[in-house]
Amino acid sequence: MTHRDRFEAVYDAYYPAIHQYAARRTRSPDDTADVISETFLTAWRRIDDVPDGEEALLWLYGVARRVLANRQRGDLRRAVLAERLRTELAAGRPAEPADLEHVRAAFHGLPERDREVLALACWEDLTSERIAKVMGCTAVAARSRLHRARKRLAAALARQASLTIAMEEA
């Protein structure tokens, strides 16, 4: 019997049991499918280690159990890291002065393409050449996009300033 034949026999015989095992211990069908696939991938890679007969099912349960444990540890690590990152970001975020609200409004009023090129230039401090690589265009195109985006931002800021003045006079 070839390795493939052996694997197919194990898969056909024990897929339903491993499916039920994983489904009872996961929250979603996608998670169940992931556990099943990782379990049988391990069986494929280690087909010579899979015991014969009913012992194969016990071996597969052991593999599935370890797959689930690894997923749970990974989920816990990600949750802890996400919480730590949220805390660090909240602590390190500078307070935004009220007079910057008009800048934010003007910026968010621009098309996405303009916002992205401006953000890459100003927030990420990238040169036109590097912006071109990020955006998948030439450096000349990046410079042109940045120039036009700056002009549109300046016009939007001027409109915001006019609105502010008009509101203050009213």
Can you walk me through this structure?
With 170 residues, the protein is mainly α. It folds into two domains: 3-92, Rna Polymerase Sigma Factor, Chain: A (Orthogonal Bundle), CATH 1.10.1740.10; 98-169, Winged helix-like DNA-binding domain superfamily/Winged helix DNA-binding domain (Arc Repressor Mutant, subunit A), CATH 1.10.10. It is 80% helix and 0% strand. Helix 1 (3-25) packs across helix 3 (55-92), helix 4 crosses helix 7 (139-169) and helix 5 (112-122) crosses helix 7.
Topology:
Layout: H1 3-25, H2 29-45, H3 55-92, H4 101-108, H5 112-122, H6 128-135, H7 139-169
Helix content: over 70%
End-to-end distance = 89 Å
* Gyration radius from CA atoms, angstroms: 29 Å
CATH architecture of the largest domain: Orthogonal Bundle
Strand percentage lies at under 5%
Low-confidence stretches: none
Query: How many domains comprise the coordinates?
Result: 2
Oligomer: single chain
Tell me the structural class: mainly alpha
Count of helix runs: 7
The CATH homologous superfamily of the largest domain is termed RNA polymerase sigma factor, region 2, helix turn helix motif
Number of strands: 0
State the major sheet.
none
Element order: H for helix, E for strand: HHHHHHH
- Mean of residue pLDDT values: 90
Q: Do you know the CATH topology of the largest domain?
A: Rna Polymerase Sigma Factor, Chain: A
Shape: elongated
Main CATH class of the largest domain: Mainly Alpha
